[in-house]
Amino acid sequence: MAGTIQSIERAAAVLRVVSAGPRGLTLLEVSAALGLAKGTTHGILRTLVDVGFLGQDATTGRYEVGDRLTALGGHALDASTVRSLTLNWADTLASRAGEQVHVGVLRGLEVEVVHHVFRPDDSEQDMRTGLRLPVHASAMGKVLLAFDPSAQAQVLSRHQELRTHRTVTEPGAITRHLEAVRRDGTATEVEELVLGQAAVAAPVRGRGGIVVAAVEVSGDVERLCDGRGQVRTRFVTQVRAVARTMSRDFAA
């Protein structure tokens, strides 16, 4: 059986991202959302404009859904599908890290925890599956926000809740954090959501490179962080590696 065609998958991902933007998206926003080079992204956008699937505002340069494609389905996956595709690798990550693991998807401006693996010890822990987390104050939220221009625009346009004294709420600071996420491929939060807790997350990508979920390691600051208050490199490396493996399963 012939394999999938990468260029078509990427074009489909571009259409989904642009269709989710309430006011259209720029070339840079689309490129950042999908992790594609600007030249590659521009070529796809121009082709989609030429065939009428997208339009470009002559004044702002923003790309919008064209007349020939007035509605597109969303890219959100069913929670049970995400859980089934990440189940084994989330268990593996928890075992390697020795900490609890969460898998989450974007639901509006919150992250829904669709899978939770307990820390592999005998300590008392609460099941968090179904819990909703704020995107601006959680590691998984930052990952999902960084690659969703529509959600990012909404977050930056309104006041965000201060969950602890370390929560980042200033729009300029949030923007810098998200730029770092796109650059590094991971997001961290240290006591921004809950005092004494830290987490590191990475994106899980589906076909065409679109981010469909996030996976994180979460635990006590004293275990996850070094003396400078930074998440230890080994956890960052472990999360990034498992996220890449999960992405291959989603794209298969």
Produce the secondary structure layout.
Elements: H1 6-20, H2 27-34, H3 38-50, E1 54-56, E2 63-65, H4 79-97, E3 100-107, E4 110-117, E5 132-134, H5 139-146, H6 149-156, H7 171-184, E6 187-190, E7 197-205, E8 211-220, H8 221-224, H9 233-251
Helix pairs in contact: 1-3, 2-3, 4-9, 5-7
Organism: Aquipuribacter hungaricus
Protein name: IclR family transcriptional regulator
Keywords: DNA-binding, Transcription, Transcription regulation
Characterise this structure.
The chain has helices spanning about 5-20, 25-35, 40-50, 80-95, 140-145, 150-155, 170-185, 220-225, 235-250; strands at about 55, 65, 100-105, 110-115, 130-135, 185-190, 195-205, 210-220. The protein is α+β, with helices and mostly antiparallel strands and about 250 residues long. The chain has two domains: about 5-65, Arc Repressor Mutant, subunit A; about 80-250, 2-Layer Sandwich (Beta-Lactamase), CATH 3.30.450.40. Strands 5-4-3-8-7-6 form a six-stranded antiparallel sheet, sandwiched between helices. Strand 3 (about 100-105) and strand 4 (about 110-115) form a beta hairpin. It is globular. About 40% of the residues are buried. Mean pLDDT is about 90; it is low at about 70-75.
